[in-house]
Amino acid sequence: xxxxxxxxxxxxxxxxxxxxxxxxxxCYQCATCSVACPMAPVNAPYPRKEMIWASWGLRDKxxxxxxxxxxxxxxxxxxxxxxxxxxxxxxxxxxxxxxKNLTEPAIVGKWMSSAGGLKNLFLxxxxxxxxxxxxxxxxxxxxxxxxxxxRIVFGQIFYGDYxxxxxxxxxxxxxxxxxxxxxxxxxxxxxxxxxxxxIGPRKNWIFHLVDVLWEEVVTHKKFDDCEDGxxxxxxxxxxxxxxxxxxxxxxxxxxxxxxxxxxxxGGKIVPAIHIETPMPLSFPVKILxxxxxxxxxxxxxxxxxxxxxxxxxxxxxGFYDWYLLGIIWLxxxxxxxxxxxxxxxxxxPAFMVYYLHLVFVWMLFAxxxxxxxxxxxxxxxxxxxxxxxxxx
Length: 392
Ligand code: SF4
Ligand code: SF4
Prior knowledge:
The chain is an all-alpha fold.
């Protein structure tokens, strides 16, 4: 009979508590949570087993546990727990710890895990964009220059070709590379004993990825499954609409960014597709951008309202939750305000707010691998893994 050696880590339970799972010790292993979870499979359901691993300090078990990534954080288990042990928060804290330790450089993960690190996270892009501004102001001889025709054009300071495009491209591809390495590590952690044997035909991972993206992103079908769980007797705020708004706004804004980049760079070769920035409000790509911004604000408002309404005795909101909501709010508000100030011809606030907008957008992209948004990528990888190899 195979033996498994338990390797308790006395610091682990404390770290889980610090990361948001303070209620862990209340659990008396009744398993109500596993029955209440609408997502848990019949064999080896979660989150009861994770509660005992966390209280015993079994860090290794969490590293190789795909189940923590299958959880949708709906909070049904926490609502039904007779002890108020908040298993949903414990799973959420465990996920945060896994990707905090998984992603290099670890110092960013440390800053990202509490409000104390915010200052450093902010200062890096604040200095970067200030240097860009100062250099350009030194060349221009003005901090707030106007274009030759008198308009406010942010490119007069934050020149797209030599500053915004290369800085954001490097940041984005750097974040993608860091996440790729983390996903590889996560994938290896799921198979600690080596590659799993799969009997029978197996689809290529790309087909599984398409299935996962269809269910999780395009249709948000899994959110319905999650909310179809047992009736808790308590009002549960719908997460699907806010989440769907947010995801679709990201899709639209990513498309707009790609279209503008294509129009700008491609337009140098094919003048017919050239896009001039700033775009007029009636230009189709600009209309799409503003629809994306509106969806973003609506999604943020719904998700923020839901978090504010949560009963902290049952389902809490950790720093990771508020950091992501906060940074997206700041990106959205500074983006809209900089457009408003530009249209109102208020040059000083327009440039100041646009500078802050660049800082917050950089924070959103650069810290993506350590943030709750990176969780989307790790979760997708785990879901593809489960479809390919099953759960161990
Ligand atoms: S978390 Fe709550 S419901 Fe789950 S096993 Fe522990 S006490 Fe029971
Ligand atoms: S939060 Fe929802 S999906 Fe996650 S374990 Fe609890 S009931 Fe299941």
